[in-house]
Amino acid sequence: MTQPPPSGGWPDPASTGQPSSPPADPTLPVSPQPVPQQPTGYDPYQPTVQYQQTDPYAGAGPVPGTAGAAGYPPPPQPGYGYPPPPGYGFPQQQTNALAIVALVLSLIGIGSCITAPIGAIMGHVAMRQIRETGEGGEGMAKAAIIVGWILTGLLALVIIGYVVAIAIAIANSSTT
Fold first, then answer.
1. Which of 9, 45, 69, 119 would you call most buried, defined as having the most Cβ atoms within 10 angstroms of its Cβ?
2. For 74-102, how does the pLDDT look when each residue is reduced to its tens digit (9 = 90+)?
3. What would you measure as the largest C-alpha separation in the chain, in angstroms?
């Protein structure tokens, strides 16, 4: 069984069992191969050819549009994990003191019931100051307003409930 020739059109000598070169003609003279002469002071342990060891990729950066070498995390930022020294970094935004006081008074209103409306009103004043000065604490002022008015509403319901209960008790006691 024969195989088709390879795509180049020439048969592969290894697959056909034929030698790759023609046999030597015994009528032709054989020329001896020249033997390389070693220079004087030849050291077999030293290479005869000096190679330059250069990096072919020296100066090449990452491919544009990529983050760098794949599989490696980016290098940490300088001072990573440590707070900046005093005087460096962004200035911290100051919190409005009235917003803090308003939130505290609104939360105390859970137990005392009288400070909740005061905290809500102070929360409104703190919101106006925050808009004018650009200070921080807007969330605390909003929380003071919400908690203060909810507790004030609950306090009003409790007072109305007591008044109705007292009115019913007086109405029932006078008829007997």
1. 119
2. 665 665 666 666 776 677 789 999 999 99
3. 155
